[in-house]
Amino acid sequence: QVQLVETGGGLVQAGGSLRLSCAASGRTFSSRSMGWFRQASGKEREFVAHISRTGNTYYADSVTGRFTVSRDNAKNTVYLQMNSLKAEDTAVYYCAAKPLGAYSTNYHYASSYNAWGQGTQVTVSS
């Protein structure tokens, strides 16, 4: 099973930027589609962004144009560049991996991923 570790969270003012990283263990990273989700206090976990094995990207409407997901297969790492941050972006951010070889269908459903990181807190002050 792949292990995922997120880093890069923190406190930032509204309008600022952060880059989250998610490092994956093992040799199967390049064969896995990856996603980012977030969960604000008292709310359900929600989809943020997805990147397929071939680099196709998908975003939630709320972050389109502000967030960018990318991957570096040589480093077994997926990134989430977050710009123009808003107070409503405050949440714990999680990266997730789909099963080995799985297609990117249903990428917005958390249940389609079978590995999760521990999460990293992002707090945006207004």
What does this protein structure show overall?
This protein is mainly beta. The strands form 2 sheets. Strands 2, 4, 5, 6, 9, 10 and 11 form a 7-stranded mixed beta sheet that branches. It has a 4-stranded antiparallel beta sheet with strand order 1-3-8-7, with no helix packed on it. Strand 5 and strand 6 form a beta hairpin. The model has no long low-confidence stretch (mean pLDDT 96). It has no helices and 11 strands. Helices cover 0% and strands 45% of the residues.
- The total count of helices amounts to 0
The run of helices and strands is EEEEEEEEEEE
Number of DSSP strand runs: 11
Gyration radius (Cα, Å) is 13 Å
Which secondary-structure class do the elements indicate?
mainly beta
How far do the termini sit from each other?
39 Å
Strand content: over 45%
General shape: globular
* Residues in helices, as a percent range: under 10%
Task: Describe the sheet with the most strands.
Answer: 7 strands, mixed
How would you name the oligomeric state of the polypeptide chains in this document? single chain
